[in-house]
Structures are given as C-alpha cells and as structure tokens.
Amino acid sequence: MKETDFVNGFAKGLRVIEAFEDGDRRLSIAEVAKKTGLDRATVRRSLLTLVELQYADYDGKFFSLTPRILRLGHAYLSATPLPALLQPHLDHLAEKTGQSSSASVLDDIQVVYIARASQRRVMSINLTPGSRLPAYCSSMGRVLLAAMADEPVRQLLARTALRANTDRTLTDIDEIIVELGRVRQQGYAVIDQELELGLRSIAVPLKNRRGETIAALNVGAPAAHMSLTQMIEEVLPLLTDAAERLRISLM
Amino acid sequence: MKETDFVNGFAKGLRVIEAFEDGDRRLSIAEVAKKTGLDRATVRRSLLTLVELQYADYDGKFFSLTPRILRLGHAYLSATPLPALLQPHLDHLAEKTGQSSSASVLDDIQVVYIARASQRRVMSINLTPGSRLPAYCSSMGRVLLAAMADEPVRQLLARTALRANTDRTLTDIDEIIVELGRVRQQGYAVIDQELELGLRSIAVPLKNRRGETIAALNVGAPAAHMSLTQMIEEVLPLLTDAAERLRISLM
C-alpha cells in the first residue's frame, strides 16, 4: 500500500465516531479532540461532516450520534451470513438451557459479539451484537485464542492490560498459555467467575469444514443457577451438538 | 456550514462502508464503484484505508468487512442510554406474550431497530438492532409518522417507494394520512399483514416527560398465533404499561 492510497480524512473520521463509545453520548469538540488525540480543527470538520450526512446531531454545543450510524455496523451484520446462520442455534441453546447463548469472533485482544439469544437478562453485563469483552478472561476468548499458535498469543497478551476482575482471574501470561493448551486439548473453555463474580460460562469453537476455528459459541449463567458440573455435563453436549450442526452447514 | 468544513474523503468512505449492506459480503472495487456511484480510484483508496485500519479484509480480488466495523454502530448503541433502558421492558413483553418485541426510531423514511427481544424466531424477517423497515407499512413506522405533522409526512411519503408488499398494504398517500390520524387519536397502530403475509404487529409511542415521541415499541406475532382482537385486548395494555413505566424513567 502506497502512502497516497491512505485517506487521512476518512481514517480520522472513523476515530471520531469511535470516540462516542463507552457511554459518552454527548461530546463537545474539545472532548472528542482529547479522546482521539486529533486536533480540534480536524475533529470539528469530521463532526460537521457527520451532521451534514445526518449521522450526528449538534445542539450548538454538543454532538451526539444518530441511529443512522447503525447502518455502518449493520453493513457487516447483514453482509455476513454467519450471524443469521447462528441465530436459530443460539435461540435453541438459550431455550434449552434457560440461559443466554452467544457467538463471537476475535478482534485483536477482544471478542466481539456477533449474535446472541437470551432468555432473561440476569447479568450486570448488557451484551448486544458489537459488544466486546477482553479475550484473556472470557470463555469465547479462551477458545479463540486456543485456536492460535502460542507465540502470536503471547504477543497479543503482552499488549493486553491483564486486569484481575476478580480474585480468580488468570493474569499471568504463562498460566494463561497453559490453560489455553488445556482448552485446545479438551475442546472447550470454562470460565468460573474470572470475568465477573457470580458469572460462569462455557464455550466451544465453531469450526468450518477445513477445521479452522471461525467463531466461538457459549452459554453463560449466574453461578447460583448452574454448577460447573452442570455446565460440563448438561450444557457442553448441547454446545458441541450445535457446533457440529453448524460445521456441516458451513462451506 | 462552510464548504471547507466538509471532509469529502470521510463522506465517501462512509458510502463505501454502506455499499456492503443487503447481503453483499464480498465486493470488488468495480462493484463498490457501481453501487456508490463513486469513481474507482476513490473507492480503491477508501477500501485500502479500511484494510489498513483492519475494518476490512482483502483477498487480492474482493473486499469484505471485518467485525471491527461493529465498533462504529456500537458507538451509538453504547452511547445511547435508550436501548439499555428499553431492553428489560422488551424482554418482559416478549416473555408475557410469547412473541417478539422491538423498539425503533425513525431514520428518514425507514424505522431503525434499536433494541429487540424475541422468544422464538418464527418470522421470515430476521431483525437485529440496526435493521430497517419501511415506515409507511410497519406498526412502529405508523406510530412514529403519526407523531409528525401531516405536511412533513406527505413530503417523506412522496420520496418513498410505496410498494404493495401484500394486497392489504396501504400505498395511497391520502389513505395513509387518514390512517395516521386514526393512529394519533387512538394512541396505537396495528398492522395486519401489510408488511408481510401472515404477520401482525401492534405499536405504541414511547414519549418523554415533555410528551414528545422519542421511539416506538411493538409486539409482532404470526397471524396464526394471534388475532387482531387478542392484539388489542391482551397485548396493547402490556405495551401501554411498558411505555408508561419508561416515560417515568426518562428525563
């Protein structure tokens, strides 16, 4: 790629959109400049362009995104057959287990939810397609990392802030690598309150016909609702069954 | 807004992203140029910029979006308190009715789903946050249009392709305006197989404390599962109750 092939104004504009994450609904030019590290003039032009295209509103002081911005994320969801293929299987898993079931893919050091079915919203975590969680301490993240070789995983983890969300969270790279070896061997990952106290989840890889892991499926439940044994004895067979059916339907 | 305040490269890049809607997962430079009306050199630079930023993949011939693009739509969803506020109410509605319940806002001539809960996926329509439907023939669209004055609605409808999806679909602007008057008066809209044969839905406005309609809530069901009378006698009270509780919790 030549330098002249890079559209700076486009790249900076996308950074401006991302500045609205993390619950910051209304932002001033100064705030977006601070969050993105871009200069105010650039931020101002990007925001005014978004307003002109009706992707954002401006009340004279603050800018906020409009629902039109959903078209961008939706371009991926509607263009990718995977979420639509997954949804009935996740609905079935959620119904059978009475819990929530999700699918995600790896995006750098995080997992991104691409589909989800939930029977009841019991967790403090509010997840929708596009939501992200750290890969190192989530069940789907462990499954997706286990599909990679150890060395690139070490590099990813070295760039990750390995925070102890609870006193059970693995934060040592060597320990995580050992755990990923176990996940690779047994074909599933269990997270027992490493992401959040009171939350357990179990995940399996979704493989295509060539045996490549293309996503992860999981079921998450409040620890009070489901023991580790139940997760492995009751939920795991449903998950592997769903992954097997999906493998057959995938190219 | 001065002309120099508009970042052309950003605006064109956003059009390139939107070209991937409608199930077109893999697109060549020529295809994106055709869909967007932009010249190939511009499309090429925009696509290569997306690849450089890992928003897109390139296999040497075709470009496809990566899940990272979900960050953009998610910036809206996470920054807006409304979807998170709505979700427990939609979950409750879906559970009580055994059907699906959604919330949406108006984006030009379409409704955009901002939250959804479904008990079972029985429709041929696969809806997720960011999905869009035509406003003129959907229950939430009717509620949102009814909140506007007749003249701007006429202008919107004049720009809409008023397609008869079924032989029940209202496609005459005057008839739609009369129906919107009825919706305004009765406080809800019912769609009986105007969008799709076999599909009924009922919607109410979600108003803030100032009485402004800020979104619509609905319940949709297969016609075989629920009569019009059931929708009005059983579902409508649940919807108005949810809207009233939400109104109190909104600023």
TrEMBL record, chains A, B:
GO terms for biological process: 3,4-dihydroxybenzoate metabolic process; negative regulation of DNA-templated transcription; positive regulation of DNA-templated transcription. Keywords: DNA-binding, Transcription, Transcription regulation. One of its GO terms (molecular function) is DNA binding. Residues 68-251 form the IclR-ED domain. Residues 7-67 form the HTH iclR-type domain. Signal peptide: none annotated. The keyword Ubl conjugation does not apply. Pfam families: HTH_IclR, IclR_C. PANTHER family: HELIX-TURN-HELIX TRANSCRIPTIONAL REGULATOR, ICLR FAMILY, TRANSCRIPTIONAL REGULATOR. This is Helix-turn-helix domain-containing protein. The lineage of its organism: Bacteria, Pseudomonadati, Pseudomonadota, Alphaproteobacteria, Hyphomicrobiales.
